[in-house]
Amino acid sequence: MGEALDPCVHCGFCLPACPTYLVTGDEGHSPRGRIVLMRALERGEMSPGDPALLEHLDACLGCRGCEPACPSGVDYGRGLEAARTQIFDARGLPPAAALVLGVFRHRWAWRPLFALARAFRATRIPHLLSGGGRLGFGLGMLASSSEQRDTGTAGQRVSGADGQPQQNEMGTTSTVPLTTVALFRGCVMNALFSHVHEATRRTLTVNGYRVVEVRGQVCCGALHEHAGAMEAARSLAETNVAALQDEADFIVVNSAGCGALLKNYGHLLGSAAGAKMAAKVRDVSELLADRGPRLGAPIGIEVAYDAPCHLQHAQRVHAAPLAVLGAVPGLRLHVLPGSDRCCGSAGIYSVLRPRMARAVLENKIASLAAAQPRPDVVATGNPGCLMQIGAGLRAAGLPIGVAHPVELLDLSYDEAGFYEKKSVNGER
Ligand code: SF4
Ligand code: SF4
Among 59, 155, 166, 190, which one is most buried in terms of CB atoms within 10 A? Predict the structure, then answer.
Protein backbone atom coordinates (compact mmCIF):
# COMPACT_ATOMS: atom_id res chain seq x y z
CA MET A 1 0.00 0.00 0.00
CA GLY A 2 2.84 2.36 1.01
CA GLU A 3 4.60 2.42 -2.35
CA ALA A 4 1.38 3.15 -4.19
CA LEU A 5 0.28 5.98 -1.90
CA ASP A 6 3.63 7.41 -0.79
CA PRO A 7 3.87 9.95 -3.63
CA CYS A 8 0.81 11.83 -2.28
CA VAL A 9 1.75 15.38 -1.34
CA HIS A 10 -1.78 16.34 -0.25
CA CYS A 11 -2.11 19.00 -2.94
CA GLY A 12 -5.82 18.33 -3.48
CA PHE A 13 -5.76 18.46 -7.29
CA CYS A 14 -7.68 15.17 -7.30
CA LEU A 15 -10.64 16.49 -5.30
CA PRO A 16 -12.63 17.95 -8.24
CA ALA A 17 -12.26 14.60 -10.07
CA CYS A 18 -13.84 12.60 -7.24
CA PRO A 19 -17.59 11.98 -7.61
CA THR A 20 -18.18 11.28 -3.93
CA TYR A 21 -16.36 14.47 -2.90
CA LEU A 22 -18.35 16.49 -5.41
CA VAL A 23 -21.60 15.13 -3.98
CA THR A 24 -20.74 15.51 -0.30
CA GLY A 25 -18.02 18.17 -0.05
CA ASP A 26 -16.60 15.99 2.72
CA GLU A 27 -12.80 15.66 2.86
CA GLY A 28 -13.22 12.13 4.21
CA HIS A 29 -15.05 11.24 0.99
CA SER A 30 -12.19 12.59 -1.14
CA PRO A 31 -9.11 10.74 -2.45
CA ARG A 32 -6.83 12.84 -0.25
CA GLY A 33 -8.85 12.10 2.87
CA ARG A 34 -9.02 8.39 2.07
CA ILE A 35 -5.27 8.24 1.47
CA VAL A 36 -4.70 9.68 4.97
CA LEU A 37 -6.96 6.97 6.40
CA MET A 38 -5.33 4.18 4.40
CA ARG A 39 -1.88 5.24 5.53
CA ALA A 40 -3.06 5.29 9.14
CA LEU A 41 -4.41 1.77 8.64
CA GLU A 42 -1.09 0.62 7.20
CA ARG A 43 0.89 2.12 10.10
CA GLY A 44 -1.43 0.49 12.63
CA GLU A 45 -2.74 3.84 13.87
CA MET A 46 -6.29 2.83 12.95
CA SER A 47 -7.87 -0.56 13.38
CA PRO A 48 -9.48 -2.30 10.33
CA GLY A 49 -12.81 -2.06 12.17
CA ASP A 50 -12.66 1.70 12.83
CA PRO A 51 -16.11 3.11 11.86
CA ALA A 52 -14.67 6.27 10.22
CA LEU A 53 -12.27 4.22 8.13
CA LEU A 54 -15.01 1.83 7.02
CA GLU A 55 -17.49 4.58 6.25
CA HIS A 56 -15.11 6.52 4.00
CA LEU A 57 -13.47 3.56 2.27
CA ASP A 58 -16.76 1.73 1.72
CA ALA A 59 -18.13 4.90 0.10
CA CYS A 60 -15.26 4.98 -2.42
CA LEU A 61 -16.51 3.92 -5.87
CA GLY A 62 -13.12 2.52 -6.85
CA CYS A 63 -13.60 4.42 -10.10
CA ARG A 64 -9.98 5.67 -10.16
CA GLY A 65 -11.08 9.00 -11.57
CA CYS A 66 -8.59 10.56 -9.14
CA GLU A 67 -5.55 8.90 -10.77
CA PRO A 68 -5.29 10.91 -14.00
CA ALA A 69 -5.87 14.12 -12.00
CA CYS A 70 -2.88 13.44 -9.75
CA PRO A 71 0.38 15.15 -10.75
CA SER A 72 2.41 12.96 -8.35
CA GLY A 73 1.49 9.62 -9.91
CA VAL A 74 -0.30 8.18 -6.89
CA ASP A 75 -1.52 4.65 -7.72
CA TYR A 76 -4.78 5.04 -5.82
CA GLY A 77 -6.32 1.84 -7.19
CA ARG A 78 -3.49 -0.33 -5.93
CA GLY A 79 -3.52 1.39 -2.54
CA LEU A 80 -7.27 0.86 -2.24
CA GLU A 81 -6.92 -2.79 -3.19
CA ALA A 82 -4.32 -3.30 -0.44
CA ALA A 83 -6.43 -1.47 2.17
CA ARG A 84 -9.59 -3.38 1.32
CA THR A 85 -7.68 -6.67 1.44
CA GLN A 86 -6.39 -5.78 4.92
CA ILE A 87 -9.92 -4.87 6.06
CA PHE A 88 -11.41 -8.04 4.52
CA ASP A 89 -8.78 -10.22 6.18
CA ALA A 90 -9.58 -8.64 9.56
CA ARG A 91 -13.38 -8.49 9.52
CA GLY A 92 -14.74 -10.31 6.45
CA LEU A 93 -17.61 -8.79 4.50
CA PRO A 94 -20.86 -7.18 5.64
CA PRO A 95 -23.73 -9.70 5.25
CA ALA A 96 -25.28 -8.10 2.13
CA ALA A 97 -21.96 -7.99 0.28
CA ALA A 98 -21.12 -11.54 1.36
CA LEU A 99 -24.44 -12.77 0.01
CA VAL A 100 -24.08 -11.06 -3.38
CA LEU A 101 -20.45 -12.09 -3.85
CA GLY A 102 -21.25 -15.64 -2.75
CA VAL A 103 -23.84 -15.87 -5.51
CA PHE A 104 -21.40 -14.63 -8.16
CA ARG A 105 -18.77 -17.14 -7.09
CA HIS A 106 -20.81 -20.12 -8.29
CA ARG A 107 -22.46 -20.61 -11.67
CA TRP A 108 -25.06 -22.91 -10.13
CA ALA A 109 -26.12 -19.99 -7.91
CA TRP A 110 -26.25 -17.09 -10.37
CA ARG A 111 -27.50 -18.86 -13.47
CA PRO A 112 -31.00 -19.68 -12.17
CA LEU A 113 -31.36 -16.23 -10.61
CA PHE A 114 -30.50 -14.52 -13.87
CA ALA A 115 -32.77 -16.91 -15.78
CA LEU A 116 -35.63 -15.68 -13.59
CA ALA A 117 -34.57 -12.07 -14.20
CA ARG A 118 -34.57 -12.66 -17.98
CA ALA A 119 -38.01 -14.23 -17.85
CA PHE A 120 -39.32 -11.29 -15.83
CA ARG A 121 -37.68 -8.84 -18.23
CA ALA A 122 -39.41 -10.56 -21.15
CA THR A 123 -42.82 -9.73 -19.64
CA ARG A 124 -41.86 -6.03 -20.06
CA ILE A 125 -43.28 -5.32 -16.60
CA PRO A 126 -39.91 -3.78 -15.62
CA HIS A 127 -40.17 -1.45 -18.62
CA LEU A 128 -43.67 -0.36 -17.60
CA LEU A 129 -43.07 0.04 -13.86
CA SER A 130 -39.57 1.56 -13.84
CA GLY A 131 -39.36 4.84 -11.97
CA GLY A 132 -37.60 6.91 -9.36
CA GLY A 133 -38.32 4.97 -6.15
CA ARG A 134 -35.96 2.22 -5.01
CA LEU A 135 -38.08 -0.56 -6.52
CA GLY A 136 -38.79 1.43 -9.68
CA PHE A 137 -35.10 2.18 -10.12
CA GLY A 138 -34.22 -1.51 -9.77
CA LEU A 139 -36.83 -2.37 -12.38
CA GLY A 140 -35.36 0.35 -14.59
CA MET A 141 -31.94 -1.28 -14.28
CA LEU A 142 -33.34 -4.60 -15.45
CA ALA A 143 -35.28 -2.94 -18.29
CA SER A 144 -32.10 -1.16 -19.39
CA SER A 145 -30.34 -4.47 -19.93
CA SER A 146 -32.64 -5.09 -22.93
CA GLU A 147 -31.36 -5.32 -26.47
CA GLN A 148 -30.89 -1.99 -28.24
CA ARG A 149 -33.14 -3.21 -31.08
CA ASP A 150 -35.97 -3.16 -28.54
CA THR A 151 -35.47 0.47 -27.54
CA GLY A 152 -36.80 2.07 -30.69
CA THR A 153 -33.49 3.28 -32.04
CA ALA A 154 -33.67 0.76 -34.87
CA GLY A 155 -36.76 2.59 -36.09
CA GLN A 156 -34.65 5.71 -36.52
CA ARG A 157 -32.28 4.17 -39.03
CA VAL A 158 -31.97 6.10 -42.25
CA SER A 159 -30.72 4.92 -45.58
CA GLY A 160 -27.54 6.27 -47.11
CA ALA A 161 -27.48 7.98 -50.47
CA ASP A 162 -27.21 4.69 -52.31
CA GLY A 163 -28.13 2.37 -49.48
CA GLN A 164 -24.72 0.71 -49.79
CA PRO A 165 -22.08 0.26 -47.11
CA GLN A 166 -19.04 2.50 -47.40
CA GLN A 167 -15.45 1.29 -47.41
CA ASN A 168 -12.84 2.83 -45.21
CA GLU A 169 -9.15 3.13 -45.84
CA MET A 170 -8.36 0.14 -43.65
CA GLY A 171 -9.69 -2.27 -46.24
CA THR A 172 -12.10 -5.17 -45.94
CA THR A 173 -12.14 -8.58 -44.38
CA SER A 174 -10.51 -10.13 -47.43
CA THR A 175 -7.31 -8.07 -47.04
CA VAL A 176 -6.42 -8.78 -43.41
CA PRO A 177 -5.07 -11.98 -41.85
CA LEU A 178 -7.54 -14.12 -39.93
CA THR A 179 -6.93 -13.71 -36.20
CA THR A 180 -8.53 -16.03 -33.68
CA VAL A 181 -10.33 -14.41 -30.76
CA ALA A 182 -11.86 -16.17 -27.74
CA LEU A 183 -14.98 -14.47 -26.38
CA PHE A 184 -14.93 -13.91 -22.62
CA ARG A 185 -18.54 -14.47 -21.57
CA GLY A 186 -18.52 -13.48 -17.88
CA CYS A 187 -21.59 -13.66 -15.64
CA VAL A 188 -23.82 -10.58 -15.94
CA MET A 189 -22.83 -10.08 -19.58
CA ASN A 190 -23.68 -13.66 -20.41
CA ALA A 191 -26.91 -13.70 -18.44
CA LEU A 192 -28.43 -10.31 -19.31
CA PHE A 193 -26.39 -8.98 -22.26
CA SER A 194 -26.04 -12.01 -24.52
CA HIS A 195 -27.21 -9.71 -27.35
CA VAL A 196 -23.98 -7.70 -26.86
CA HIS A 197 -21.99 -10.94 -27.11
CA GLU A 198 -23.78 -11.70 -30.39
CA ALA A 199 -23.08 -8.18 -31.68
CA THR A 200 -19.45 -8.62 -30.63
CA ARG A 201 -19.14 -11.90 -32.55
CA ARG A 202 -20.80 -10.50 -35.68
CA THR A 203 -18.88 -7.22 -35.83
CA LEU A 204 -15.52 -8.90 -35.17
CA THR A 205 -16.24 -11.46 -37.87
CA VAL A 206 -17.00 -8.71 -40.38
CA ASN A 207 -13.61 -7.22 -39.49
CA GLY A 208 -11.68 -10.39 -40.18
CA TYR A 209 -11.53 -12.09 -36.80
CA ARG A 210 -12.48 -15.71 -36.18
CA VAL A 211 -14.41 -15.75 -32.90
CA VAL A 212 -14.32 -18.99 -30.92
CA GLU A 213 -16.25 -20.12 -27.87
CA VAL A 214 -14.32 -21.55 -24.91
CA ARG A 215 -15.97 -23.71 -22.28
CA GLY A 216 -15.15 -23.68 -18.57
CA GLN A 217 -15.14 -19.91 -18.04
CA VAL A 218 -16.48 -18.34 -14.85
CA CYS A 219 -17.08 -14.84 -13.44
CA CYS A 220 -13.90 -12.74 -13.82
CA GLY A 221 -13.69 -12.08 -10.05
CA ALA A 222 -13.72 -8.27 -10.30
CA LEU A 223 -16.53 -7.87 -7.76
CA HIS A 224 -14.60 -10.00 -5.27
CA GLU A 225 -11.31 -8.20 -5.92
CA HIS A 226 -12.97 -4.79 -5.41
CA ALA A 227 -14.23 -5.97 -2.02
CA GLY A 228 -10.81 -7.26 -0.94
CA ALA A 229 -11.91 -10.91 -1.15
CA MET A 230 -8.68 -11.87 -2.88
CA GLU A 231 -8.85 -15.61 -2.30
CA ALA A 232 -12.20 -15.81 -4.10
CA ALA A 233 -10.96 -13.51 -6.87
CA ARG A 234 -7.83 -15.64 -7.39
CA SER A 235 -9.81 -18.86 -7.42
CA LEU A 236 -12.06 -17.52 -10.20
CA ALA A 237 -9.06 -16.10 -12.08
CA GLU A 238 -7.22 -19.43 -11.98
CA THR A 239 -10.25 -21.18 -13.48
CA ASN A 240 -10.38 -18.64 -16.29
CA VAL A 241 -6.65 -18.87 -16.95
CA ALA A 242 -6.88 -22.67 -17.19
CA ALA A 243 -9.79 -22.38 -19.63
CA LEU A 244 -8.57 -19.52 -21.82
CA GLN A 245 -4.79 -19.04 -21.81
CA ASP A 246 -3.96 -21.28 -24.79
CA GLU A 247 -7.13 -20.93 -26.81
CA ALA A 248 -6.65 -17.98 -29.18
CA ASP A 249 -4.51 -15.08 -30.34
CA PHE A 250 -6.62 -12.68 -28.26
CA ILE A 251 -9.29 -12.83 -25.57
CA VAL A 252 -12.02 -10.30 -26.27
CA VAL A 253 -14.02 -8.64 -23.48
CA ASN A 254 -16.99 -6.31 -23.91
CA SER A 255 -17.40 -5.40 -20.25
CA ALA A 256 -14.96 -2.72 -19.10
CA GLY A 257 -15.00 -3.91 -15.49
CA CYS A 258 -14.17 -7.51 -16.45
CA GLY A 259 -11.53 -6.38 -18.94
CA ALA A 260 -9.73 -4.27 -16.34
CA LEU A 261 -9.30 -7.25 -14.02
CA LEU A 262 -8.51 -9.77 -16.78
CA LYS A 263 -5.69 -7.47 -17.92
CA ASN A 264 -4.48 -7.48 -14.30
CA TYR A 265 -4.45 -11.28 -13.81
CA GLY A 266 -0.64 -11.28 -13.85
CA HIS A 267 -0.56 -9.05 -10.76
CA LEU A 268 -3.54 -10.77 -9.11
CA LEU A 269 -2.14 -14.29 -9.49
CA GLY A 270 1.56 -13.48 -9.43
CA SER A 271 2.07 -16.22 -12.00
CA ALA A 272 3.50 -16.49 -15.50
CA ALA A 273 0.28 -18.13 -16.69
CA GLY A 274 -1.78 -15.19 -15.38
CA ALA A 275 0.54 -12.69 -17.06
CA LYS A 276 0.46 -14.65 -20.32
CA MET A 277 -3.32 -14.63 -20.41
CA ALA A 278 -3.51 -10.97 -19.37
CA ALA A 279 -1.29 -9.99 -22.30
CA LYS A 280 -3.87 -11.43 -24.71
CA VAL A 281 -6.87 -9.55 -23.31
CA ARG A 282 -8.41 -6.77 -25.42
CA ASP A 283 -11.55 -4.74 -25.12
CA VAL A 284 -13.75 -5.34 -28.17
CA SER A 285 -13.32 -1.71 -29.19
CA GLU A 286 -9.53 -2.14 -29.32
CA LEU A 287 -9.77 -5.10 -31.70
CA LEU A 288 -12.32 -3.34 -33.91
CA ALA A 289 -10.31 -0.11 -33.97
CA ASP A 290 -7.20 -2.09 -35.00
CA ARG A 291 -9.04 -3.03 -38.19
CA GLY A 292 -10.52 0.37 -38.92
CA PRO A 293 -13.20 -0.78 -38.24
CA ARG A 294 -15.00 -1.43 -41.51
CA LEU A 295 -17.73 1.14 -42.17
CA GLY A 296 -21.40 0.16 -42.14
CA ALA A 297 -24.55 1.77 -43.48
CA PRO A 298 -25.82 5.13 -42.22
CA ILE A 299 -27.86 5.41 -39.04
CA GLY A 300 -29.04 8.94 -38.37
CA ILE A 301 -29.02 9.27 -34.60
CA GLU A 302 -27.53 11.55 -31.97
CA VAL A 303 -25.26 9.54 -29.66
CA ALA A 304 -23.70 10.69 -26.40
CA TYR A 305 -20.63 8.63 -25.47
CA ASP A 306 -19.97 8.06 -21.78
CA ALA A 307 -16.65 6.41 -20.95
CA PRO A 308 -16.78 3.57 -18.38
CA CYS A 309 -14.28 4.24 -15.58
CA HIS A 310 -12.73 0.80 -15.94
CA LEU A 311 -12.13 1.37 -19.64
CA GLN A 312 -10.92 4.96 -19.38
CA HIS A 313 -9.05 5.07 -16.08
CA ALA A 314 -8.13 1.44 -15.40
CA GLN A 315 -7.42 0.23 -18.97
CA ARG A 316 -6.48 3.67 -20.37
CA VAL A 317 -8.55 2.98 -23.51
CA HIS A 318 -9.83 6.29 -24.83
CA ALA A 319 -10.00 6.49 -28.62
CA ALA A 320 -11.04 2.96 -29.60
CA PRO A 321 -14.75 3.22 -28.61
CA LEU A 322 -14.98 6.51 -30.51
CA ALA A 323 -13.50 4.76 -33.57
CA VAL A 324 -16.19 2.08 -33.29
CA LEU A 325 -18.95 4.68 -33.20
CA GLY A 326 -17.17 6.62 -35.95
CA ALA A 327 -17.60 3.65 -38.27
CA VAL A 328 -21.36 4.29 -38.34
CA PRO A 329 -21.96 6.92 -41.02
CA GLY A 330 -24.65 9.43 -40.11
CA LEU A 331 -24.20 8.83 -36.38
CA ARG A 332 -23.62 12.22 -34.76
CA LEU A 333 -21.28 11.60 -31.86
CA HIS A 334 -20.94 13.81 -28.81
CA VAL A 335 -18.76 13.06 -25.81
CA LEU A 336 -20.91 13.72 -22.77
CA PRO A 337 -19.64 16.53 -20.50
CA GLY A 338 -18.40 14.79 -17.35
CA SER A 339 -17.90 11.57 -19.30
CA ASP A 340 -14.73 10.99 -17.28
CA ARG A 341 -16.72 10.76 -14.03
CA CYS A 342 -18.32 7.65 -12.61
CA CYS A 343 -22.06 7.07 -13.02
CA GLY A 344 -22.35 5.50 -9.56
CA SER A 345 -22.71 1.90 -10.70
CA ALA A 346 -19.27 0.59 -9.62
CA GLY A 347 -19.95 -3.15 -9.48
CA ILE A 348 -22.31 -3.90 -6.60
CA TYR A 349 -21.88 -0.41 -5.10
CA SER A 350 -25.25 0.72 -6.41
CA VAL A 351 -26.86 -2.23 -4.60
CA LEU A 352 -24.99 -1.73 -1.32
CA ARG A 353 -25.01 2.09 -1.20
CA PRO A 354 -28.00 3.12 -3.30
CA ARG A 355 -28.30 6.66 -1.92
CA MET A 356 -24.74 7.68 -2.74
CA ALA A 357 -24.91 5.85 -6.08
CA ARG A 358 -28.05 7.81 -7.02
CA ALA A 359 -26.55 11.09 -5.86
CA VAL A 360 -23.46 10.47 -8.04
CA LEU A 361 -25.69 9.52 -10.99
CA GLU A 362 -27.70 12.73 -10.77
CA ASN A 363 -24.84 14.82 -12.20
CA LYS A 364 -24.68 12.61 -15.28
CA ILE A 365 -28.44 12.65 -15.79
CA ALA A 366 -28.40 16.43 -15.45
CA SER A 367 -25.73 16.58 -18.20
CA LEU A 368 -27.90 14.44 -20.44
CA ALA A 369 -31.01 16.50 -19.71
CA ALA A 370 -29.14 19.67 -20.67
CA ALA A 371 -27.42 18.25 -23.77
CA GLN A 372 -28.24 19.97 -27.05
CA PRO A 373 -29.12 18.39 -29.37
CA ARG A 374 -30.87 15.85 -27.18
CA PRO A 375 -29.17 12.43 -27.59
CA ASP A 376 -31.22 9.51 -28.83
CA VAL A 377 -28.85 7.04 -27.22
CA VAL A 378 -26.12 6.98 -24.58
CA ALA A 379 -23.35 4.60 -25.65
CA THR A 380 -21.13 3.02 -23.01
CA GLY A 381 -19.23 -0.25 -22.87
CA ASN A 382 -19.97 -1.70 -19.45
CA PRO A 383 -23.07 -3.56 -18.21
CA GLY A 384 -23.28 -1.76 -14.85
CA CYS A 385 -23.09 1.65 -16.56
CA LEU A 386 -25.75 0.67 -19.11
CA MET A 387 -28.11 -0.38 -16.32
CA GLN A 388 -27.35 2.52 -13.97
CA ILE A 389 -27.57 5.27 -16.60
CA GLY A 390 -30.56 3.59 -18.27
CA ALA A 391 -32.44 3.44 -14.97
CA GLY A 392 -31.56 7.06 -14.21
CA LEU A 393 -32.91 8.16 -17.59
CA ARG A 394 -36.12 6.23 -17.02
CA ALA A 395 -36.49 7.71 -13.53
CA ALA A 396 -36.04 11.20 -14.97
CA GLY A 397 -38.56 10.53 -17.75
CA LEU A 398 -35.97 11.26 -20.45
CA PRO A 399 -36.66 9.42 -23.74
CA ILE A 400 -33.03 8.40 -24.28
CA GLY A 401 -31.93 4.81 -24.84
CA VAL A 402 -28.71 3.11 -23.78
CA ALA A 403 -26.53 0.83 -25.89
CA HIS A 404 -23.11 -0.76 -26.00
CA PRO A 405 -21.08 0.80 -28.87
CA VAL A 406 -20.86 -2.57 -30.66
CA GLU A 407 -24.66 -2.79 -30.69
CA LEU A 408 -24.78 0.38 -32.78
CA LEU A 409 -22.07 -0.86 -35.13
CA ASP A 410 -23.94 -4.14 -35.40
CA LEU A 411 -27.15 -2.33 -36.38
CA SER A 412 -25.18 -0.42 -38.99
CA TYR A 413 -23.66 -3.64 -40.40
CA ASP A 414 -27.08 -5.26 -40.42
CA GLU A 415 -28.49 -2.28 -42.30
CA ALA A 416 -25.60 -2.59 -44.75
CA GLY A 417 -26.60 -6.18 -45.48
CA PHE A 418 -23.28 -7.62 -44.34
CA TYR A 419 -24.87 -10.46 -42.48
CA GLU A 420 -27.26 -11.63 -45.18
CA LYS A 421 -24.49 -11.45 -47.76
CA LYS A 422 -21.89 -13.13 -45.62
CA SER A 423 -24.05 -15.40 -43.43
CA VAL A 424 -21.94 -14.40 -40.46
CA ASN A 425 -21.63 -17.44 -38.17
CA GLY A 426 -24.60 -18.88 -40.03
CA GLU A 427 -26.98 -16.93 -37.84
CA ARG A 428 -28.86 -14.85 -40.36
S1 SF4 B 1 -3.56 11.90 -4.60
FE2 SF4 B 1 -2.32 13.20 -5.96
S3 SF4 B 1 -3.69 14.92 -6.51
FE4 SF4 B 1 -4.60 13.91 -4.71
S5 SF4 B 1 -3.80 15.03 -2.94
FE6 SF4 B 1 -2.38 13.30 -3.26
S7 SF4 B 1 -0.77 14.11 -4.62
FE8 SF4 B 1 -2.47 15.58 -4.71
S1 SF4 C 1 -11.64 5.99 -6.75
FE2 SF4 C 1 -13.29 7.40 -7.43
S3 SF4 C 1 -14.61 7.64 -5.60
FE4 SF4 C 1 -12.68 6.71 -4.89
S5 SF4 C 1 -11.42 8.46 -4.22
FE6 SF4 C 1 -10.87 8.08 -6.39
S7 SF4 C 1 -12.25 9.39 -7.62
FE8 SF4 C 1 -13.09 9.29 -5.51
Answer: 190
